[in-house]
C-alpha cells in the first residue's frame, strides 16, 4: 500500500509513521484534505474533530462532500473513508464543536502533532493558546478563504508573516498577543489579498455534547476549490516532514 512512499523515505520511516498520532481540528476544505493526506502518508492514528454535517455549499471544495452525503456527519464520513484508505489506521472521531471543555480529551489522547483548520475565531484562538501552553507542535491555517491562488500560500512562524493586514490574520495575531503569544506557532498563510463580491453574515447557535450553548456571528467567506485543498496538503506535508 505504501510502497511508493517507501521509495522516497524508506521502509523504516514508514513503520515509524505508523506509530505517530495527529489530531485534526476541522474537517472542511482545509482539514479534510490534511486528514486524507496524513492517512495516505501512513500516519497510524488520527483524532478528527468536527461537529458539522455536509451541506450543499460544501460540494465545491470538501473531499467528502457529495450529493449523496448531504446531511451526514463529517467526522463519521471521514472515519469510514480513512479506514477504507488504510484499514490498519486508528481513528478517534469526536463529533463535537471545539471549545476549551474538549481540552481534557485532547490531553488524554496526547497527539504528536495538531493541525488546526478551525474557521471560528473564538475556538481557533482557544486551540492555539491550548497547544502553545501545553507544548503541542501545531500548524494552523490562516488564509484559505476569499482567495483563488494556491501558489500564494506559504508556511512560516506567526512572527514571520509577511502581510499582517488581512483582517482575519491581524485579528488572530492581536488576540494572541493579548495572551502573550508572539511566536512559536506555525501557520499556512497567503500573500494574496482576500477578495469577495459580497459579505454574508450569519449567527450560529450551537449546543455541544456537554450541554454548553455557544452563539457566534460569522461572515461566510468566499471559497474556491483550489486554495483550501492546497492549504490542507501543505499542512500534512509539513507535519510528516516534522514527524520524520
Structural write-up:
By secondary structure, the protein is of the alpha/beta class. 36% of the residues lie in helices and 20% in strands. The chain has helices spanning 3-9, 11-17, 29-41, 74-85, 103-109, 121-133, 167-178, 227-243, and strands spanning 21-25, 45-49, 90-94, 113-116, 138-141, 153-157, 186-190, 200-207, 213-220. The strands form 2 sheets. Strands 3-2-1-4-5-7-6 form a 7-stranded mixed β-sheet, with helices on both faces. The chain has a two-stranded antiparallel sheet with strand order 8-9. A hairpin with a 5-residue loop joins strand 8 and strand 9. The longest helix has 17 residues, at 227-243.
CATH-defined architecture? 3-Layer(aba) Sandwich
Number of strands: 9
Average per-residue pLDDT, rounded, comes to 95
Element order: H for helix, E for strand: HHEHEHEHEHEEHEEEH
Pick out the low-confidence regions.
Answer: none
Query: Remind me, CATH topology?
Result: Rossmann fold
Task: Give the strand content.
Answer: 15-25%
Assembly category? single chain
Kindly give the count of domains.
1
What is the CA–CA distance across the termini?
Answer: 19 Å
Range of helix content: 25-40%
The largest pleated sheet is described as: 7 strands, mixed
Q: What is the CATH superfamily label?
A: NAD(P)-binding Rossmann-like Domain
Overall structural class, as computed from helix and strand content, comes to alpha/beta
Number of helices: 8
Per CATH, the class reads Alpha Beta
Write down the Rg: 17 Å
Amino acid at each position: 500500500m505504501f510502497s511508493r512512499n517507501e521509495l522516497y523515505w524508506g521502509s523504516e520511516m514508514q513503520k515509524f509513521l505508523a506509530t505517530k498520532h495527529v489530531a485534526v481540528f476541522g474537517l472542511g476544505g482545509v482539514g479534510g484534505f490534511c486528514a486524507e493526506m496524513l492517512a495516505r502518508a501512513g500516519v497510524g492514528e488520527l483524532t478528527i474533530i468536527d461537529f458539522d454535517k455536509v451541506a450543499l455549499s460544501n460540494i465545491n471544495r470538501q473531499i467528502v462532500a457529495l450529493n449523496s452525503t448531504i446531511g451526514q456527519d463529517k467526522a463519521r464520513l471521514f472515519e469510514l473513508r480513512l479506514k477504507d484508505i488504510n484499514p490498519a489506521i486508528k481513528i478517534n472521531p469526536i463529533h463535537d464543536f471545539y471549545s476549551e471543555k474538549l481540552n481534557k480529551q485532547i490531553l488524554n489522547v496526547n497527539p504528536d502533532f495538531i493541525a488546526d483548520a478551525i474557521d471560528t475565531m473564538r475556538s481557533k484562538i482557544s486551540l492555539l493558546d491550548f497547544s502553545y501552553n501545553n507544548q503541542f507542535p501545531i500548524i494552523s491555517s490562516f488564509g484559505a478563504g476569499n482567495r483563488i491562488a494556491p501558489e500564494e500560500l506559504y508556511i512560516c512562524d506567526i512572527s514571520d508573516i509577511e502581510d499582517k493586514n488581512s483582517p482575519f490574520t491581524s485579528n488572530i495575531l492581536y488576540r494572541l498577543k493579548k495572551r502573550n503569544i508572539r511566536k512559536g506557532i506555525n501557520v499556512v498563510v497567503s500573500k494574496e489579498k482576500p477578495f469577495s463580491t459580497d459579505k454574508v453574515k450569519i449567527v450560529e447557535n450551537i449546543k455541544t455534547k456537554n450541554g454548553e450553548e455557544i452563539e457566534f456571528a460569522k461572515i461566510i467567506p468566499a471559497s474556491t476549490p483550489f486554495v483550501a485543498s492546497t492549504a490542507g496538503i501543505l499542512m500534512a506535508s509539513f507535519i510528516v516532514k516534522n514527524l520524520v
